[in-house]
Amino acid sequence: MDRQLAHRAALLPPTLSGQHQRAAVRAPLGAVSIDQVLTLQRLAGNRAVAALLGADPPVVVQRGIRKPGAAGLYTRAPAMCGGEKLSVSVKLELQNIITKDKRNKSGKHFTLRQAVAWAKRQVKKTGNFLMNRAGKRLKTAKECEDCLTGQGLDMTIVGPKLTGHAPLWNALFGIAWFVEDDFKKVTGNGQAAYCSFTQTVNSLMPRLAPQISGFNEAVAAMVKAEPGPACAMKGSMFERWTLSNVLASAGQRIRFKKQGNMGQDRSSDGYDPATGTLWDMKHYTEKMAASTNNDQAADYDEILTKGYKSITGQTISAVNYLFPTLDAAKANKWLASTYGFGVYYVEDPTTLKQHA
After folding, report:
1. What is the pLDDT of residues 1-19, one digit of tens each?
2. Hey, is 354 helix, strand or coil?
3. pLDDT tens digit string along 263-322?
4. Fewer CB atoms near the end CB (10 Å): N or C, the chain?
5. Which residue, 79, 73, 78, is CA-closest to 32?
6. Mean pLDDT of 63-92
7. CA-CA distance, 115 to 111, in Å (whole number)?
8. Other C-beta atoms within 10 Å of 157: how many?
9. CA triplet 240, 288, 170: central angle to 5 degrees?
10. What is the rounded CA–CA span in Å between residue 64 and residue 57?
11. Over the stretch 39-59, which tens digit does the pLDDT of each residue have?
């Protein structure tokens, strides 16, 4: 046994069996998993494990965080956190666990594994949403209603829409960082005021949730709170998000009058005049039925194959459907095999991808 291993072995408690001593002493410094750390913790004790993993100076590896003041608990021994180099952002979130006394859903202190996982989720969430904006944040439907009332907006319809669907709005405002100044340009009376309000919300979401995973998280929270109303809202919200963040060239909408075997008049979600591509956005998580929107896909196929012109004279050279996730795109690959349409999805960081 070389000098380093001998030194490490000397740190082990004498009650540890020979087999466990050999396992602990020869644990690879650069590739120690959290599970290995916790196992060694049980076998060799906290301070011994810290020294074995190369912490300098040795720090106590606690299974939970029980008191403030141990600021270097994780950051001085990165090998304890899965043998990986933690980013500065993750380290800062680990410090927040201590300084803000964060706990798990059961109210108990985090274990080492839970702490690292929580910190990574927080960093990811921060990247998914625009946070810490200037101005007073609106976190609930009631706060938004008070804000709009204070601005003198006609609340005849907006008020009941906010209070009647408070769970939905609370879910959205609880995730996305809306502030009072966002709604200063909401105008109109009655239904026009409500349309102005929803258009404002839709126009802000591409900036407040710039990553698709963040946008999907916000939509999922809304759907969970009130499935029916949220499903009615998410389509136009997703359309605005995609046209702002991944399809800026397809911001034109074109309309086609019913003709031939078409089921009804059709209006695209987007159209790229440079390529002649018609885009339709579907925030679906499962397979889209062929009958969706009164056989929309079949009508688009007829428009494409028969060369129908829009009411403003454009023809289309391709039809693409865009979904929010790869799984959703896979579930709707039939659009490619049946009609030859493009099937696309969005992935972080805000990248358009073709599945079929």
Report:
1. 445 445 545 554 454 445 5
2. strand
3. 999 999 999 999 999 999 999 999 999 999 999 999 999 999 999 999 999 999 999 999
4. N
5. 79
6. 45
7. 6
8. 17
9. 45
10. 20
11. 555 554 555 555 544 444 434
| DSSP state at residue 249 | G
| Residue 267, SS3 per DSSP | strand
Tokens matching residue 279: 């885009």
- Residue 346 burial (CB count, 10 A): 28
95's tokens = 């410090």
Choice among 118-127, 262-271, 323-332 with the minimum mean pLDDT: 118-127
Which single residue is written with the structure tokens 């009958």?
291
Q: Which are the contacts of 58, defined by CB distance < 8 A and separation ≥ 6?
A: 47, 50, 51
pLDDT-above-90 percentage for the chain: 60
Q: In angstroms, what CA-CA distances link 302 with 229, 275, 289, 355?
A: 32, 19, 18, 23
Rounded Cα distance between 207 and 49, Å, is 45
Q: What is the rounded CA–CA span in Å between residue 291 and residue 236?
A: 20
Residue type, 60: V
Q: Tell me, what amino acid is at 136? A: K
d(C-alpha 210, C-alpha 269), whole Å? 20
pTM: 0.69
Nearest to residue 20, comparing CAs of 47, 39, 46, 1? 39
Sheet holding 342-347, edge to edge: 270-272, 277-281, 318-323, 342-347, 351-354
Q: How far apart are CA 263 and CA 296, in angstroms?
A: 8
4 CB neighbour count, 10 Å cutoff: 10
Neighbouring residues of 242: CB distance < 8 A, sequence distance ≥ 6? 270, 279, 281, 322, 346
Q: What backbone phi and psi angles, to 5 degrees, belong to 345?
A: -150, 170
Integer Cα distance of 158 and 260 in angstroms: 41
Residue with tokens 């349309």: 195
Q: What is the pLDDT of residues 157-178, one digit of tens each?
A: 999 999 999 999 999 999 999 9
Look at residues 166, 108, 122, 118 and name the one whose alpha carbon lies nearest to residue 142.
Answer: 166
